[in-house]
Design goal:
This protein is an alpha/beta fold and about 270 residues long. It is built from 13 helices and nine strands.
Length: about 270
């Protein structure tokens, strides 16, 4: 996907809108002296944005081509405080341990944007791994596809596709279309399970918000682009409701923000 990802998503009105919502949230917590570890960095769009607001960024991705594209983007923009490492998220706890310049550090923020965590079949291994990497009171923010997307469900019901309308709620790994006839096995993790796992591993939950409550999923991007002015009328509604239960769990994506507390909750 690396060669066409930016054109297919990053630079589209839909992609810019969703990324802006994530960045707007990050701006409320970022500090200029922070060290940041980014998981599944993709083409480096977020790494570049973070480099302009934090001290150091280590960006990782399992795809060598993604890392290559991201490195070129960083060079073009002259960001000198970003380093890249080819690494899968599972390497944080698997047999292939992270490189020394990751495992020897303590980070103020671990960040993962847009669906990397949906590639994990077992998300239970992530919280203890992040606990080891984060400094005291360190933060983790990650954005993943939610278990239920209200707009997607309504759209599929109107099309008469009952099976597709509720496919996310089944949760199990299934090939999801990601563009250019490519598919990847995807898991939709329950929000309650995610929050419980982090609490059990010494984290406070600081925030849960919907990303894409009134902005449709990528599968409806052509429809969004044709009717963008209509959708923009609902932007303020999304920004008000997306932080509050149950609306914060009904978007295309779910943003979860946790802070390391040092205590383990049973």
């Amino acid at each position: 996907m690396a060669e066409f990802y930016d054109a297919d998503f990053t630079r589209t009105p839909l992609g810019r809108r969703k990324r802006a919502l994530v960045h707007r949230y990050l701006e409320t917590i970022l500090q200029p002296n922070w060290n940041v570890l980014e998981l599944n960095c993709g083409t480096g769009e977020d790494a570049l944005w973070l480099s302009q607001r934090t001290k150091n960024v280590i960006a990782t991705d399992i795809s060598a081509k993604m890392v290559e594209v991201a490195e070129a983007k960083i060079r073009e923009n002259g960001a000198e405080n970003v380093r890249f490492n080819r690494m899968g998220i599972e390497d944080l706890w698997g047999e292939s341990s992270p490189s020394p310049h990751i495992s020897s550090q303590r980070f103020n923020l671990v960040f993962s944007n847009f669906d990397g965590l949906n590639c994990l079949q077992d998300i239970a291994l992530l919280p203890p791994a992040l606990n080891r990497l984060l400094s005291p009171n360190g933060e983790a923010v990650f954005v993943l596809m939610s278990r239920f997307c209200a707009l997607e469900t309504v759209a599929e019901l109107l099309r008469g596709n009952l099976q597709n309308a509720f496919q996310r709620s089944r949760g199990e790994g299934r090939p999801i279309h990601i563009g250019n006839d490519l598919r990847v096995d995807t898991w939709f993790h329950p929000t309650r399970k995610i929050l419980r796992l982090f609490r059990q591993n010494g984290f406070h939950v600081k925030g849960v918000r919907a990303i894409g409550l009134t902005t449709p999923p990528t599968s409806l991007r052509d429809f969004y682009h044709r009717h963008i002015r209509t959708f923009q009328r609902f932007d303020k509604i999304e920004e008000r409701l997306s932080l509050y239960y149950p609306f914060n769990r009904m978007g295309d994506h779910l943003l979860v923000h946790v802070r390391k507390s040092g205590r383990v909750y049973e």
